[in-house]
């Protein structure tokens, strides 16, 4: 049995477990939208598991941070758009791999 939650419920779940710092507020809003779109596109509901999301996704504040972590040579957001949830012009969240 699932309950639909709002963006504010989603953020509160992270606040209650002291996990906002994993993504920051702007990242949590972007991640909520990304997961909501994914649910709609796949036709499946997902369980909100804050700890699992913190383990499964990582925030990067720049392409350079991502390149350093994964030894890649991306130069723009267009390069990571396919597998990332964009937060702003430089920050994004992607599935940890």
- The termini sit apart by 30 Å
Count of discrete domains: 1
Main sheet specs: 3 strands, antiparallel
Q: How many strand units?
A: 3
Task: Give the % helix.
Answer: 40-55%
Main-sheet strand order equals 1-3-2
Low-confidence stretches: none
Mean pLDDT: 93
* Topology pattern, helix = H, strand = E: HHHEHHEE
Helix tally equals 5
Structural class: mainly alpha
Shape: globular
Give a short overview.
With 97 residues, the protein is mainly α. The chain has five helices and three strands.
Description:
The chain has 97 residues and is mainly alpha-helical. It has one domain (7-95). Helices cover 49% and strands 11% of the residues. The protein has 5 helices and 3 strands; from the N terminus they run αααβααββ. It has a 3-stranded antiparallel beta sheet with strand order 1-3-2. β2 and β3 form a beta hairpin. The longest helix has 19 residues, at 24-42. The termini are far apart. The relative contact order is 0.16. The mean pLDDT is 93.
């Amino acid at each position: 049995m699932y309950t639909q939650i709002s963006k504010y419920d989603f953020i509160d779940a992270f606040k209650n477990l002291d996990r906002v710092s994993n993504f920051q507020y702007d990242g949590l809003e972007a991640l909520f939208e990304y997961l909501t779109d994914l649910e709609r596109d796949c036709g499946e509901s997902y369980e909100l598991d804050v700890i699992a999301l913190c383990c499964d996704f990582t925030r990067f504040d720049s392409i350079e941070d991502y390149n350093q972590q994964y030894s890649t040579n991306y130069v723009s957001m267009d390069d990571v758009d396919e597998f990332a949830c964009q937060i702003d012009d430089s920050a994004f969240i992607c599935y940890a791999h």
